[in-house]
């Protein structure tokens, strides 16, 4: 955490005097091995930007026109085309402590190199720090002394390291920041033209004629150094923009896949799930399992089996409640299914050894009936909104099932008391689900019991937050966590989600963070993207 006591509070006004005072000579690199990420790059339609093949990276050089024939060193072949470039690049990486990094590319004409650090240089005092770089006015401070700071960079900070080599006539500035969710090193290579650089075979304007040791050129070098920060900020913001875009596409794809699964349109569901997986590095068990189910029903049996095996390897306490589930039944034709089913059975017997299995099955069945009717209602509401008769039939069925489920839950609570995880495992969540869909008086009466479940670690605090908000909204009061919303139709017939009023709205994100919820703006964007 940056604190005013630990770091100099003065904004950097002149980098050159401090940069020249901070001469760091790490010596020549003994290795000429450059580790390329082997990405293929092309000029994008965005002005001054270059993107890789799968658009994971989109990097800017600032408001500059990129020459069509600009050399981009991004592979062993492009490196070999310039004699001595391997030593030149290896020296830059060694000096900056990036020997083990993967180089995305080096664009000599733009004086820039980008690399994926492995690992990032946490723990080493930077030259300067820019904080809150996602905001409109990032604060940059120069670090003169080590005040005992552990120098661990936060995602919203940029750490900058400056290296000056008078003999090589070279200034290297490395900006470490988070691009999407991963650290990225942007290296500004300010190099005076020398007999050595002439041999690299680049154009005569690639390196400057100005000598870094010439004090009369300090204004030139000061301007060149200062320009790096704005460029790094720009690339950070592009990374955030891409991250949000991919999250949006992920959310939309998952929502569409869910709709297809409800309709048992497995081929389309699988297409959407594959898209979702391509937009995220997250391995969400629900998404993986749904992908396996859709693949099994679409005939991609080996693919489905491999996903189930991945889930089992990720979580040794995971098992199928029903190994011969109808959706996964096609997999029973595979030789490896039998070993997998045995693993599921042994896990179930180990974990459920002390369970009340009949009660667990009863609760899971209640969960299934609750969700099944709601899935059918939502599907009809989305696909056949004009069929009011069908929607009314399903609405009445949902009310009837809710009433039966509530009566059964009340009977379970009278007979067994609170059925905790030690008795029924995660099936205890069914209690919350049914109460969530009950009348407000039942919700109020059950809330203390459910809060106890959270304290014991048997219920997710998010579930109770949703119930609390629902009670408050239905009582005409302001909600606390912002989980409740409604849909409002404008004059053009477009429906827009509206969040019910929130108490102390300026502090809602702090409350949401305390129970594991994402910021309200992010959640609202996802709600709007629901198909």
Notes on the structure:
Helix content is 46%, strand content 13%. Helix 5 packs antiparallel against helix 6 (266-278), helix 6 (266-278) packs across helix 7 (285-298) and helix 14 packs antiparallel against helix 15. The strands form 3 sheets. It has a 7-stranded antiparallel beta sheet with strand order 4-5-10-9-8-6-7. It has a 3-stranded antiparallel beta sheet with strand order 1-2-3. The chain has 17 helices and 12 strands. It starts with 14 loop residues before the first helix and ends with a helix.
Write the layout of secondary structure elements.
Elements: H1 15-21, E1 41-43, E2 49-52, E3 58-60, H2 76-80, H3 85-95, E4 102-107, E5 112-116, E6 128-131, E7 139-142, E8 158-165, E9 170-179, E10 182-191, H4 195-198, H5 218-262, H6 266-278, H7 285-298, H8 301-314, H9 335-351, H10 357-383, H11 388-416, H12 421-424, H13 429-436, H14 440-455, H15 461-474, E11 485-489, E12 495-499, H16 508-514, H17 520-528
Antiparallel strand pairs: 1-2, 2-3, 4-5, 5-10, 6-7, 6-8, 8-9, 9-10, 11-12
Summarize the structure.
This protein is of the alpha+beta class and 531 residues long. The chain has 17 helices and twelve strands.
The span between the termini is: 40 Å
Fraction in helix = 40-55%
State the strand order across the main sheet. Answer: 4-5-10-9-8-6-7
How many structural domains can be distinguished in the coordinates?
3
Shape: elongated
Q: If helices are DSSP runs of H or I spanning 4 or more residues, what is the number of helices? A: 17
The average pLDDT score comes to: 87
What value does the Rg take, in angstroms? 30 Å
**Strand residues, percent:** 5-15%
Number of strands: 12
- Catalogue the unreliable spans: 1-31
| Structure classification | alpha+beta
Oligomer: single chain
Question: Main beta sheet: strand number and arrangement?
Answer: 7 strands, antiparallel
Secondary-structure element series: HEEEHHEEEEEEEHHHHHHHHHHHHEEHH
């Amino acid at each position: 955490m940056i604190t005013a006591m630990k770091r100099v509070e003065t904004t950097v006004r002149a980098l050159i005097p401090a940069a020249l005072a901070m001469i760091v000579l790490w010596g020549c690199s003994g290795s000429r091995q450059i580790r390329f990420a082997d990405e293929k790059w092309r000029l994008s339609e965005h002005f001054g930007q270059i993107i890789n093949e799968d658009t994971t990276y989109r990097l800017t050089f600032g408001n500059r026109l990129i020459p069509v024939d600009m050399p981009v060193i991004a592979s062993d072949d492009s490196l070999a085309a310039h004699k001595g470039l391997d030593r030149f690049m290896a020296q830059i990486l060694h000096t900056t402590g990036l020997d083990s990094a993967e180089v995305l590319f080096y664009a000599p004409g733009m004086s820039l190199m980008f690399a994926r650090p492995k690992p990032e240089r946490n723990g080493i005092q930077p030259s300067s720090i820019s904080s809150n770089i996602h905001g409109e006015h990032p604060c940059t401070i120069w670090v003169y002394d080590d005040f005992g700071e552990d120098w661990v960079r936060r995602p919203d900070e940029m750490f900058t390291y400056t290296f000056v080599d008078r003999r090589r006539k070279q200034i290297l500035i490395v900006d470490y920041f988070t691009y999407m969710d991963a650290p990225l090193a942007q290296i500004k290579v300010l190099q005076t033209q020398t007999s050595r650089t002439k041999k690299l075979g680049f154009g005569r304007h690639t390196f400057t004629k100005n000598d870094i040791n010439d004090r009369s050129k300090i204004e030139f070098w000061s301007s060149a150094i200062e320009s790096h920060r704005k460029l790094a900020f720009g690339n950070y913001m592009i990374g955030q923009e891409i991250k949000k875009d991919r999250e949006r596409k992920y959310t939309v794809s998952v929502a569409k896949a869910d709709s297809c699964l409800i309709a048992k349109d497995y081929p389309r569901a699988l297409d959407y799930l594959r898209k979702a997986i391509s937009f995220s590095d997250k391995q969400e068990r629900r998404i993986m399992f749904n992908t396996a189910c859709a693949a099994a029903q679409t005939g991609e049996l080996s693919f489905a089996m491999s996903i189930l095996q991945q889930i089992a390897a990720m979580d040794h306490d995971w098992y199928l409640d029903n190994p011969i589930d109808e959706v996964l039944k096609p997999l029973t034709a595979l030789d490896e299914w039998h070993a997998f089913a045995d693993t599921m059975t042994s896990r179930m017997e180990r974990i459920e050894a002390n369970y009340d299995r009949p009660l667990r099955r009863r609760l899971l069945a209640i969960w299934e009936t609750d969700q099944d009717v709601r899935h059918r209602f939502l599907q009809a509401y989305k696909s056949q909104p004009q069929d009011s008769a069908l929607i009314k039939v399903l609405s009445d069925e949902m009310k009837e099932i809710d009433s039966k489920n509530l009566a059964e839950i009340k009977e379970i609570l009278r007979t067994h008391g609170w059925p905790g995880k030690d008795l029924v495992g995660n099936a205890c969540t069914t209690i919350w689900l049914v109460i969530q869909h009950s009348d407000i008086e039942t919700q109020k009466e059950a809330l203390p019991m459910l809060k106890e479940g959270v304290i014991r670690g048997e219920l997710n605090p998010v579930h109770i937050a949703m119930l609390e908000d629902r009670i408050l909204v239905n009582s005409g009061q302001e909600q606390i966590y912002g989980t409740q919303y409604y849909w409002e139709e404008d004059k053009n017939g477009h429906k827009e989600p509206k969040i019910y009023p929130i108490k102390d709205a300026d502090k809602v994100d702090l409350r949401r963070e305390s129970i594991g919820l994402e910021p309200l703006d992010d959640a609202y964007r996802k709600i709007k993207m629901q198909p």
